[in-house]
Write a structure and sequence with these properties.
This protein is mostly helical. It is built from three helices and no strands.
Length: about 60
């Protein structure tokens, strides 16, 4: 799978998916025009799905007073 396919599958922006892949050991594929894309496996997708979600949710105030 590509990073774009993973971002569409889970509804997350490509930058967040790529950042998670870089920080969590997703293997790189063959270089394409000087760019080394991530090669996602099913195991990587399961680990991404089980990741800890951000604490702030849209619509909720950032500061609790």
């Amino acid at each position: 799978m590509t990073t774009k396919e993973v971002s569409e599958k889970y509804g997350v922006c490509i930058a967040a998916v790529a950042r998670w892949a870089k920080n969590n050991g997703v293997k790189r594929g063959e270089p394409v025009n000087g760019i080394m894309p991530f090669s996602w496996t099913e195991d990587d997708c399961h680990r991404f799905e089980a990741r800890r979600a951000p604490g702030w949710k849209k619509g909720r105030p950032r500061k609790q007073q």
